[in-house]
Design brief:
Blueprint: H1 3-19, H2 52-64, E1 73-74, E2 91-101, E3 105-114, E4 125-132, E5 140-141, E6 147-149, E7 153-155, E8 159-166, E9 180-191, E10 194-195, E11 217-218, E12 221-224, H3 230-240, E13 259-261, E14 267-269, H4 283-293, H5 300-308, E15 380-387, E16 398-402, E17 418-421, E18 430-431, E19 435-436
Parallel strand pairs: 15-18
Antiparallel strand pairs: 1-2, 2-3, 3-8, 4-5, 4-7, 4-9, 6-8, 9-12, 10-11, 12-19, 13-14, 15-16, 16-17
Length: 442
């Protein structure tokens, strides 16, 4: 095992511990030492600092001086750009207060404005809430089964929203002066229930499950319209991770990622890189971020249907919009990515305008039938699926990636081709997007 592989293994042994999964490696005996804290290497002196906690604490300090009965907590929300083409959605005017009820016990009311007018049933927002109980506490996801109202999970229209949180005493605080809240949203695309044509087979038809027939029908689900951006991932590093978890020094490459560890222990972004897809993420990094949001990775079947569309684009229940190209080669159709001198995705070379990755949604005109961007090129996307053929039996599990990347030739960015990668690997061509599981959607 090389020194680099040993460092990867030690780092992800710690990651798996946070995910609650044991990790062993046959025929290898590694030193039982804890990973050292990553220190700033003096990279990116012009870095954009990410220090929301200091600002938030000053707000909380002022609130603690108020009479308890009049507490109204104004929340600083970290969101994406105002146009909401990438990153977090535009959420403003967040207010939080206690509301004591005679019989139901304490509850917290959280109100905010979802300012993005593009929200609709087919292009909804996925809204989730975090809280932290102090400067040394990570930001934790508030479970959706504790919430009521119209402003969490899948939200299908813009405007003023209200969330009601019952059972707050179970989280170990008695008043709002002890906690901080954040509300964030991710733009999603609705993929209606129904049949579709899946042309890729599990394990290329040689999976240990012997499933020679691909899945042909799926329930309704919601998939992120864009790949996870650097700006979103840095918020996760600063708020949801332990020491060094989710970060590796390769991310400091400004042309291919652009995240650096700062002297104060926080993470910053190279200028202008906020809306580029995060890279150098392992499968475990992707899973960690998505669990922090309440999402998961798509399966291959879910990814492929979102790319090509179902037999009916409005679903089998309605059947009013038949898919003109259910076996399309690319998300936009059958035309090559560079046909007629038009560039439809980010692939190998600079002729498409990008030497490495491109900002997400740069090729939004050529999105999938459901409006999902960058499913061809830019970065390979991790999926939930294992790749365990009989050849790989007993070896470390491989995971499947789909979509092609900025290093692939145009033909390698099609809707069917995929690759198998060890989940520990962190590469400049690897990224991901989230999915709201069918069992958890309204």
């Amino acid at each position: 095992m090389s020194q680099e592989d040993e460092e990867d293994f030690k780092r992800y042994k710690k990651m798996l511990g946070r995910l609650g999964k044991p990790l062993t490696m046959a025929s290898e005996s590694l030193p039982q030492t804890q990973p050292k804290k990553l220190r700033s290497r003096g990279l990116f002196p012009h870095i954009v600092p990410q220090t929301p906690r200091k600002t938030m604490n000053s707000v909380v300090d002022r609130i603690r001086a108020m009479p308890r009965a009049s507490v109204t907590l104004l929340i600083l929300v970290v969101a994406g750009s105002p146009c909401c083409l990438a990153g977090w959605m535009d959420i403003t005017g967040v207010k939080v207060w206690n509301n004591l009820t005679e019989l139901g016990g304490p509850k917290i009311i959280i109100e905010y404005d979802l300012a993005d007018e593009g929200v609709s049933p087919d292009s909804p927002a996925y809204v989730f809430l975090h809280l932290t109980k102090g400067s040394d506490d990570i930001w934790r996801l508030i479970p959706t089964d504790l919430l009521g109202g119209n402003g969490f999970d899948i939200v299908t229209e813009a405007g003023h929203k209200k969330v009601i949180w019952w059972g707050t005493q179970e989280f170990g605080f008695e008043d709002l002066g002890q906690v901080e809240f954040r509300v964030r949203g991710i733009r999603m695309a609705r993929v209606p229930a129904g049949r579709f044509t899946m042309r890729s087979l599990p394990g290329k038809g040689k999976d240990e499950s012997f499933e020679n027939e691909p899945k042909s029908s799926l329930a309704t689900y919601y998939i992120a319209q864009n790949e996870t951006t650097i700006g979103m991932y840095v918020d996760y590093l600063n708020e949801g991770c332990g020491e060094g978890v989710g970060y590796n020094p390769k991310m400091a490459h400004e042309g291919r990622c652009g995240i650096a560890l700062q002297e104060d222990g926080t993470y910053g972004i190279a200028p202008g890189r906020e809306d580029y897809p995060v890279t150098y993420v392992s499968w475990y990094d992707a899973v960690g971020f998505l669990r922090w949001c309440g999402l998961r990775l798509p399966t291959e079947a879910e990814w492929e249907k979102a790319c090509c569309g179902g037999l009916y684009l409005d679903g089998d229940d309605r059947q009013k919009k038949p898919n003109p190209l259910p076996e399309r080669r690319y998300p936009w159709g059958d035309e090559a990515p560079n046909a007629d001198g038009r560039y439809r995705c980010n692939y190998d070379g600079e002729e498409d305008g990008f030497a490495h990755t491109a900002p997400v949604a740069s090729f939004a005109e050529f999105s999938s039938p459901y409006g999902v961007c960058d499913m061809a090129g830019n970065v390979n996307e991790w999926t939930q699926d294992w790749y365990t053929t009989s050849y790989h039996a007993g070896l470390d599990g491989f995971r499947v990636v789909r979509g092609g990347s900025w290093l692939d030739v145009p033909e390698g960015c099609d809707a069917v081709s995929g690759a198998t990668v060890l989940p520990l690997k962190e590469k400049s061509i690897m990224g991901f997007r989230g999915l709201r599981a069918p069992t958890a959607t309204p």
